[in-house]
Structure formats: structure tokens, C-alpha cells
């Protein structure tokens, strides 16, 4: 039995401009013990999918189960298996950190939970904030409490929706060390992020979501291997000739060009030299997940165009 199973999940929102399909036939399973990444640009449907998993929103079609429990028909059992760290910071400002965690324990029917609450506070660097009121905490500290709150009932499946968006480096490290430890102890993790380097470092498998559809799903290593393996990177103030510009990814002064092998690199370098473009800080590197992501997202763009779907 998988930890989480999404079967043909769709979601349509009614908007003033008509029906909007945020999810369109999403199907995949997350195995028990997996560290699974769900990646996609803003608006892809990641939070919508997690809201359906959490039972906060109803799918328009399809089925979602958590360790065999249907999230609608068997809501209470499904919810108990899940620890969800939401994207938005929402709190009751009048309680202290410890009270917040005790109340959440009570909500899940967990009694005498102070030992585990103390461990969570320590692991997440919150020990000296236990008595502070929620409204006194900084955004980063509130985020830590959200993580602790999701874990009070020791859920087998941990879901993190963009947990590190706008979060400082220290918390990112603390958080990942702790979540990786829980994963080694057997907890399943579902992470959505747009920090691709995090997903590359942590996730066993990755699904890429675009406009409500899964456009790639594979082991992280296979996704990395399946793309152009080399990138030529440099900086320039000059305009690239059209033939090169067509294949380049340009971010400000930084230009990146894909190459599959050494011969292609030579061809690119020759073309650059001939064009007279002045190049600084030239380097040749391995493609990373960011490159794979862009390649796949562009591919999905072409497919959508070919099918006559409005971009
Ligand atoms: N309650 C809602 N009503 C209408 N549209 C919504 C609602 N929630 C989300 N959307 C739309 O659904 C799409 C997916 O949103 P979301 O799931 O938040 O994406 P992500 O988390 O990947 O950024 C977006 O286009 C968003 O504007
Ligand atoms: Mg989101």
C-alpha cells in the first residue's frame, strides 16, 4: 500500500471569468519511506493538490488516499496519518508556543505529549521561545512553530508546502537536517518547493507539475541523467547572434548554453569566437535540476502549443 495515492485528481474553481481547471487528471503514488518532491512554477497547482490531500478542499474528480484511507470518505483516519506544514502562516496570536503545541496535541487526541513537544522545540531551535506568545515571534520563528505543530502527533506522512519560501539559511539547514532524520526513521515526506537545489539534494523522486498536469515524474538521478549533461556558462554585455540566442538561457548578463558532448561544446565556442561576442568568466559545468526543470517546462510549453491549448 502506498503512503499517498493520487488517482486522476482534478479540480475546477468557479471564477468570475468562468470555470478554471487548476488540476487536470493528476495520478501518482508516493511509496512509504520515500522523500518525494513536487515541483512546479507558481500557480501550477501544488497547494491545490495539498489542500485536497489535507481534506481542506474537495477534488472535482478522482480519488486521494493516505495509507489506504480515503481523504473524503475516511477523513479522520486519513488526517491522522498526515502532518501538514501549510504555505501560509496562520495562528492564534494569543497562545504561547507551548500552548499552541499542546492544543494541537489535544486536537489529535494525544495526551501527555510534553516530552515529544520538548524534543520538537529543541530540534527546531525553539527551546527558548516556548513561553513566548505567537504574536511576538518573527516570521522565521513562526514557520518553525508551524513545523512543530504539524509533527505533534508523530504522523507517518509529513507534507511541507514551500516550507523555506522567504526563510533564512539557518532555518533551512535546521529544518532539512531534522526532516531528513525523520525520513531516515521511516517517515514519508512530500515536499513542494521551487528551490530546485533543495529538491535535488533531498528527494528520491520528483514529479513536475505544470498548469495542473504532471509533465515529468522520475527518480531524481534519472531526471538529471535524461537531460543535456553539460552547460556552458559565461557573462557578457554583448548581444548574442540569433543562432546562439535561440538556444540560450539568458539571466541578466549570464548566458547558459546546453551541450550534449565535447564536440557540441567546441561548436559553441567556435560560434562564439566568430561572432566577436566578448565573454567573461567562461565555465563548463554539469547540468543541474534547474536546467532539467527549464527544459521540461519548455517542452511542456511546446506540447501544449502543438495541441492547440492556450498558453
Ligand atoms: N480558491 C481559488 N479560486 C480560484 N482559483 C484558485 C483558487 N485557489 C487557487 N486558484 C488558482 O489555481 C491555480 C493553482 O494555484 P495553487 O495551487 O496555489 O498553485 P501553486 O501552489 O503551485 O503556486 C492558480 O492559477 C491559482 O490562481
Ligand atoms: Mg503554493
Name its key features.
6-stranded mixed sheet, binds adenosine-5'-diphosphate, 14 strands, 11 helices, 4-stranded antiparallel sheet, binds magnesium ion, 311 residues, Rossmann fold
Q: Specify the biggest β-sheet.
A: 6 strands, mixed
How many helices does DSSP assign? 11
Q: How are the strands of the biggest sheet laid out side by side?
A: 6-7-8-3-9-10
According to DSSP, the number of beta strands is 14
CATH fold-level assignment of the largest domain = Rossmann fold
Under the CATH scheme, which architecture of the largest domain would be assigned?
3-Layer(aba) Sandwich
Report the end-to-end length measured between terminal Cα atoms: 37 Å
Ligand catalogue: adenosine-5'-diphosphate, magnesium ion
Number of domains: 2
Look at the structure and give the CATH class of the largest domain: Alpha Beta
Question: What characteristic shape results from the CA principal axes?
Answer: globular
Average per-residue pLDDT, rounded, comes to 89
